[in-house]
Amino acid sequence: MSEYVYCSFTDAATPAIGLSPVLDAWDLSDSSREIDSASMTNVASSGFYSYDISSLDMSKPLVFRADGGEALVGFERWRWGGIGAFRALRRNVALDNLPFQMVLSTDHVTPATGKTVTAKIKKDAGPFATCTNAVSEISSGWYEISLTKTERDADTTLLSFTATGCDTRGIVLLSE
Fold first, then answer.
1. Which of 40, 70, 90, 160 is buried most deeply by CB count within 10 Å?
2. How far apart are CA 160 and CA 169, in angstroms?
3. Is residue 89 in a domain?
4. In DSSP terms, which residues pair with 104 in a beta bridge?
5. Is the pLDDT of residue 86 over 60?
């Protein structure tokens, strides 16, 4: 059975069609690169692109970065995410080792290593507050944070990660 990574790109908030995006993927358990600049396929001229990841070991903690190409600028050029079996996020259940990548603000591409990352959390309609646990660096610009049971007591959780010289990284978590 084939498994795919899917992502979409936009140009000025409009679906970007006719790109030649490439995919990179890493195994977080040993920092090895599992996919190196592999070409993605356009899905029915929709602005969505795919790559067959059937050959990867889905039991490993895998993350990807897709590059839509130089024609796109800023946040519209890049997509990040996890690969493998997805589990439903349950409300009021701690979430360990949530991975995310930080990149330098000088070019919006270069992985930011050795940074002190500040993590803020917003639950449902509440204000942003500092996360309970500190962010830890994994490698190659990848970091992780564990969220407490109390921090996961929300239907919608917004996370904001900042560091000097880096683009702000935002993550939205939805609970079932």
1. 40
2. 6
3. no
4. 166
5. no
* Furthest C-alpha separation in the chain: 44
Distance from C-alpha of 127 to C-alpha of 150, rounded to nearest angstrom = 15
Query: Contact at 8 Å (CB) between 153 and 165?
Result: no
Instruction: Please enumerate, as own/partner, the contacts of 77-86 that have beta carbons within 8 Å and a separation of 24 or more.
Output: 77/9, 77/108, 77/109, 78/103, 78/108, 78/109, 79/7, 79/8, 79/9, 81/5, 81/7, 83/5, 83/25, 83/53, 83/56, 83/58, 84/58, 84/59, 84/60, 85/58
The pTM of this model reads: 0.58
The CATH number of the domain holding residue 126 is 2.60.40
Which structural domain, as residue segments, surrounds residue 26?
4-83
Chain segment 66-79, per-residue pLDDT in tens: 999 998 987 788 88
* pLDDT surpassing 50 at residue 127: yes
Q: Dihedral, CA atoms, 60, 161, 77, 137, nearest 10 degrees?
A: -40
